């Protein structure tokens, strides 16, 4: 009785091996035909992210064009406001430190 089971088990394992090989071949062919990326090991892959369309142009189109950057009068006025604010802060002692006298330089010298 045991001698009859042995050939049947070998046949089943051989049949399973052939079925597995055929399934792998079909999967590879399907991936090649439809342009899919085959990942049989299931490892992480950036393909899903790289497959998406880029949206930078759409985002840039959403925001209106800034006219202030083209007008030299507006830019000069903003620069003058910045300089006057900086001067006011310096008079109060709240301006930026001189080069080499900031917090990092003080820490390094201690």
Automatic annotation (TrEMBL):
Pfam families xref list: MRP-S33
Region (Disordered): 86-110
Keyword annotations of the record: Mitochondrion, Ribonucleoprotein, Ribosomal protein
Extent of Basic residues compositional bias: 91-110
Subcellular localization(s) per the UniProt record: Mitochondrion
InterPro entries: Ribosomal_mS33
Gene Ontology CC entries for this record: mitochondrion; ribonucleoprotein complex; ribosome
Signal peptide: none
Classification via PANTHER family: MITOCHONDRIAL RIBOSOMAL PROTEIN S33, SMALL RIBOSOMAL SUBUNIT PROTEIN MS33
Family: Belongs to the mitochondrion-specific ribosomal protein mS33 family.
Protein name, per record: Small ribosomal subunit protein mS33
Organism, scientific name: Macleaya cordata (Five-seeded plume-poppy)
């Amino acid at each position: 009785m045991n001698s009859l089971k042995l050939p049947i088990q070998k046949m089943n394992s051989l049949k399973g091996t052939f079925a597995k090989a055929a399934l792998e071949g079909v999967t590879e062919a399907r991936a090649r035909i439809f342009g899919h990326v085959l990942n049989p090991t299931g490892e992480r892959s950036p393909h899903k992210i790289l497959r998406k369309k880029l949206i930078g142009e759409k985002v840039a189109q959403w925001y209106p064009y800034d006219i202030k950057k083209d007008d030299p009068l507006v830019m000069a006025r903003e620069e003058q406001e910045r300089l006057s604010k900086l001067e006011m802060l310096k008079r109060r002692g709240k301006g930026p430190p001189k080069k080499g006298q900031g917090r990092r330089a003080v820490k390094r010298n201690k």
